[in-house]
Amino acid sequence: MLKNCSKRWKKRSEGERLKKCPSIGLALGSGGARGFAHITLLETLHEMGMNVSFLSGSSMGAVVAAAYALHPDPRVLKRMTRHFLDVFRDRIHELINNVQANVALRKRIVFLTRLVNSISLDHSDFLYSSLSRIFGKARFSDCKIPCVVVAASLKGELVTLDEGYIVDAVAASASVPGAFPPIRLGGEWLVDGGVISVIPVSAVKKLGADVVIASHVGYASFKRGFTDVLDYAIHLDDIKGEILANEEMKEADVVACFRNIKVPWYRFDLAENIMENARRVLEEQNFHNKLINAMQTRPSEKAVKT
């Protein structure tokens, strides 16, 4: 418990620290490449002397949450990110080009039809092979920090995943409709967790966190001009996601909001730029002081009961 205290609290007596040291739960939201901002948030918490006690993640947030649960050191995450970008550089550019090529209405209709009629898309192997590089054969039981990830079933239900092979659960949570195929897991077809839960705040609360931080990486932009009806539909889906995120953020004690980082979800090649901008955003939002205040006003229930 004492490891969760900031340096500021370590000067206090042991009794004071027990009362003033709530456990931190971190809910990392969906958002594709913009999810690299989560790494900067974890790095900031590390610099503050705050340890995360519980993690939850949706889509790209699931990738970062699970990776940190296995290796709770933001420096390791940064090294893994750079290695990933180096190894999969060509595949990343292929993904970017193919997604951008599906902007025309006719091509996008064909693309979406393939999703419905097939369980295999051009980039299904890219998703699984890249995640396998990160997680290998690791299981949730190997995590050093309790972690859950969320996915959406094709029945429209939220599915919480916290056992078995991490790569399977994270692949399901990150299977963006229209870019990757659904993943069959536990007898159900699962897709991107962000379809139903953009920021899984309730999931990390159920793990027992005293103070919950919601990390929202937002959507690239709200467009004003549309080229066709499908473009308009995608825009409305973005608005729906933002509404869901706003509702979930209301349940958190502290919010780190990176919605001003205007980067398309598939631009994984911009990881370094995203992480740099995220640090500026946290400073502008005075995140450090907001978290300190939340920690002081929400003492650990476990400590109070004892």
CATH architecture: 3-Layer(aba) Sandwich
Distance between the termini: 13 Å
Structural class: alpha/beta
Provide the β-strand percentage band.
5-15%
What does this entry show, briefly?
The protein is an alpha/beta fold and 306 residues long.
Describe what you observe in this structure.
The chain is of the alpha/beta class. It has one domain (23-305): Cytosolic phospholipase A2 catalytic domain (3-Layer(aba) Sandwich), CATH 3.40.1090. It has helices spanning 14-19, 37-48, 60-70, 74-87, 89-101, 105-117, 124-135, 166-173, 201-206, 229-249, 271-284, 287-297, 301-305; strands spanning 24-28, 54-58, 147-153, 158-161, 183-185, 188-191, 211-216, 254-257. Strands 1, 2, 3, 4, 5, 6, 7 and 8 form an eight-stranded mixed sheet that branches. Helix 10 (229-249) links the parallel strand 7 (211-216) and strand 8 (254-257). Helix 2 (37-48) runs antiparallel to helix 4 (74-87), helix 2 crosses helix 11 and helix 3 (60-70) packs antiparallel against helix 8.
Defining traits:
disordered N terminus, Cytosolic phospholipase A2 catalytic domain, alpha/beta, disordered C terminus, globular, eight-stranded mixed sheet, 306 residues, 48% helix
Task: Give the SSE layout.
Blueprint: H1 14-19, E1 24-28, H2 37-48, E2 54-58, H3 60-70, H4 74-87, H5 89-101, H6 105-117, H7 124-135, E3 147-153, E4 158-161, H8 166-173, E5 183-185, E6 188-191, H9 201-206, E7 211-216, H10 229-249, E8 254-257, H11 271-284, H12 287-297, H13 301-305
Helix pairs in contact: 2-4, 2-11, 3-8, 7-8
